[in-house]
Amino acid sequence: MLRDITLGQYYQTESVIHKLDPRVKLIATICFIISLFVVKSWIGYAVAAVFLAVVIRLSHVPFKYMVKGMRAIVFIMLITVVFNLFLTPGEVLVTVWKIKITREGLQQAVTMAVRLSFLIVGSSVMTLTTTPNSLTDAMERLMKPLKVFKVPVHEVAMMMSIALRFIPILLEETDKIMKAQIARGADFESGNLIKKAKAMVPLLVPLFISAFRRANDLAMAMEARCYRGGEHRTKMKPLKYAARDRMAYGVLAAYFAVCIVIRIYL
Amino acid sequence: MSIILDHVNYVYGGDTALAVHALKDINLVIPDGQFIGLIGHTGSGKSTLVQHLNGLIKPTGGSIYFNGEDIHADDYDKKKLRSKVGLVFQYPEHQLFEIDVFSDVCFGPRNLGLSRQETELRAYAALKQVGLEDEYFYQSPFDLSGGQKRRVAIAGVLAMKPDILVLDEPTAGLDPKGRDEILDQIAKLKEETGITVILVSHSMEDVAKYVERIIVMNQGAVMYDDVPREVFKHYRELEEVGLAAPQVTYIMQALHKNGMPVQTDVTTIAEAKDEILRVLDGQMRVTEQMQDLGAM
């Protein structure tokens, strides 16, 4: 049961987007999200849609995976749309039983819906084409300047990759412990909130002990291989920009420029 | 107190591209009081199979009957089933969590709703059954040695007083002395109480020494189901699927091939010793007779 939760949603396939440096994808996603709030006209959203569609096409990831992320926010979307639709003051278009739908409300609702969906799909493109570890590499490289301010960039990145690495292992361990306790008659389903919370003790205590034990073993293994932190530490596969990354930056800059122009003149 | 598996099938990850057909048409009868060994290579379906026996996993096809009742029927009490079919997982010491050893062993019977007195009586008896000394009863389970922790975990299941005890690789990670201790304890328990024991193991020696019936799993299906003597006769086929016969069997085969007329279906060291002595004794007698004849 717990094994069915696929973590990170990396979709393995060959594509131009997959081969891009993860820093490019990270920065591009951030820029894209910002652009969604920069443009305010229909033309702007159309441009964003075209950009997104092209990127999706280039990524060779089946479209249905893009919309999987939407499922998580269906509820929020619904609330946002409903509230904007019915509670915005302005020029009334339709009245349903005392509830007014205004033109402004309709505009707001649609805008919000479009922004939210593009945001989700845009981020999905990134997570579908980039492995969690490349993302942490990208973040480590991008945050490097912060080292000047004594921010422990390397340590944070290392913690993130280790955590990512251990999530599936700990999930499996949880499953095993749960089954072992159920075999002893434990009940994780029935009872009120308090009873359920108490029932978690035979699950959480062994899990924490297991996590600490693994952390200890991992630390010893890393030390035994001369790990001393980030100082002078080299990478086996350092991130290097290739021609296609520079082109991607170019395209990104052009897109962003177009968005700004649309905002100013339209 | 028997378990019947009828055309049991299990598929992991049902309709995804990664579906694994872990159990293929398993038909088994586990009668009362048998000592069974379940062997198979890694991934052969042993652990999946044993988790079906106490209802932790529901088969995707087929049925399982405990004492004639379908355990996946709507109104069947699985909690009660688990008190009758005790399952000890691999590395069971990872499930210990209480403040002290005694409380941890009480967890099982308490979940069954027994009175405090009955719970404590059972916990005490179970700890004695696994041979743990009194002085450890009120220590934290995390302060014990690996072998002791394991015994506490097994006691935790024994305190439920199951009719059938299933142990998944109880000797994993233990040194030879620890292994012998645990297995001897289990054999003793079986003799004293007559419970059914199913031992899942990788070690042919362990299995051959104690069990009266061996079930060999291969790629999710039952390959052999017979007494140890018969199963280990197929040692070549066993080797092909990543298993082996006990070392002793190989020795006897080698002796036989080199001209010593020993029986080759021996599976334990004790049997081997007796058989070798028997043959040597016979040869000695023949030699003496010949000497006598020669002297005449």
What does this protein look like?
The complex is a heterodimer of chains A (266) and B (296). Chain A has 266 residues and is mainly α. Helices cover 70% and strands 3% of the residues of chain A. Chain A folds into 2 domains: 151 residues, no CATH class; 81 residues, no CATH class. Chain A contains 11 helices and 2 strands; from the N terminus they run αααααββαααααα. A two-stranded antiparallel ribbon of chain A has the order 1-2. In chain A, α2 packs antiparallel against α6 and α8 crosses α10. The N terminus of chain A is likely disordered. Chain B is an alpha/beta fold and 296 residues long. Chain B has a domain of 51 residues. Chain B is 43% helix and 21% strand. Chain B has 11 helices and 10 strands. In chain B, strands 6-7-8-3-9-10 form a 6-stranded mixed beta sheet, sandwiched between helices. At the A-B interface, α8 and α10 of A face α2 and α3 of B.
Please give the radius of gyration of chain A in angstroms. Answer: 24 Å
Structural class of chain A: mainly alpha
Low-confidence runs of at least 5 consecutive residues of chain A = 1-7
Number of helices of chain A: 11
Helix share bin of chain B: 40-55%
Main sheet record of chain A: 2 strands, antiparallel
List the SSEs and their pairings.
The complex is a heterodimer of chains A (266) and B (296).
Chain A: H1 16-19, H2 22-38, H3 42-59, H4 63-68, H5 70-87, E1 92-96, E2 99-102, H6 103-129, H7 132-143, H8 153-183, H9 193-199, H10 201-224, H11 243-265
Antiparallel strand pairs in A: 1-2
Helix pairs in contact in A: 2-6, 2-11, 3-6, 3-11, 5-6, 7-8, 8-10
Chain B: E1 3-12, E2 20-30, E3 35-40, H1 46-53, E4 61-66, E5 69-70, H2 78-84, E6 85-88, H3 101-111, H4 116-129, H5 146-158, E7 164-168, H6 176-193, E8 196-201, H7 204-210, E9 213-218, E10 221-226, H8 228-233, H9 235-240, H10 247-257, H11 269-295
